[in-house]
Write a structure and sequence with these properties.
The protein contains 5 helices and 11 strands, in the order E-H-H-H-E-E-E-E-E-E-E-E-E-E-H-H. The chain is an alpha+beta fold and about 200 residues long. The two termini are about 40 Å apart.
Length: about 200
């Protein structure tokens, strides 16, 4: 979570004569910085992990700042991602049996690895990367389950990713401080002229 305590103090100095203006300005500036923080999260995750930007963006949520709570939050709403989200070969059934090639997948960018026991299965929802659990189904068939990888929240929580997102959010916030002050001063001027 990125708070704005020091930025609010800065705003309060400039907007001391306008009641409530500092908190309004802080929330406004932070919410404009939020989109840049979210974009930084997607970019940093996809530079480290071989997952598509669109998939990451769809699983990241944000909380906007308000006058009462001047902070923004970028978080993941996803559990562990299935291996199917990452580049893998082959992409169609043909692995997992004796004499067949091992499934190879790239989770960390630039570091593809063999995944022993994994195979591509055609399910009703489409091809999925699966593994045999060692159990059996109620029909007596070999039970299979999806192969999962790293949770998106863990990707977002990696120190280098987290620090880059926080740095971009604060830089974006600093770029919005001036426009936020100008906005509140114009608002006060308009209100004063109307009275």
């Amino acid at each position: 979570m990125i708070t704005a305590a020091d930025r609010i103090e800065h705003l309060e100095r400039f907007l001391a004569g306008v009641p409530g203006a500092a908190r309004r300005a802080a929330a406004w500036a932070m919410n404009r910085a939020l989109d840049e923080a979210r974009a930084a999260a997607v970019a940093k995750i996809t530079s480290r992990y071989a997952v598509r930007a669109g998939d990451v963006a769809a699983m990241i949520t944000t909380s906007r700042a308000t006058e009462a709570e001047p902070s923004i939050v970028v978080r993941s709403r996803s559990g562990s991602l299935s291996l199917g989200y990452f580049p893998h070969t082959p992409t169609s059934p043909g692995t997992g049996g004796p004499g067949r090639p091992l499934l190879r997948a790239e989770v960390l960018r630039g570091a593809p690895r063999d995944v022993p026991g994994a195979f591509v299965a055609n399910l009703q929802s489409g091809p999925r990367v699966m593994h045999r659990t060692g159990g059996t189904t109620s029909r007596g068939k070999a039970a299979i389950a999806t192969v999962y990888t790293v949770p998106l929240g863990s990707m977002l929580g990696v120190q280098s990713v987290r620090e880059a997102v926080e740095a971009e959010a604060l830089a974006a916030l600093d770029r919005q401080i001036g426009p936020a002050i100008d906005r509140e001063l114009k608002r006060a001027e308009t209100a004063g002229g109307a009275s």
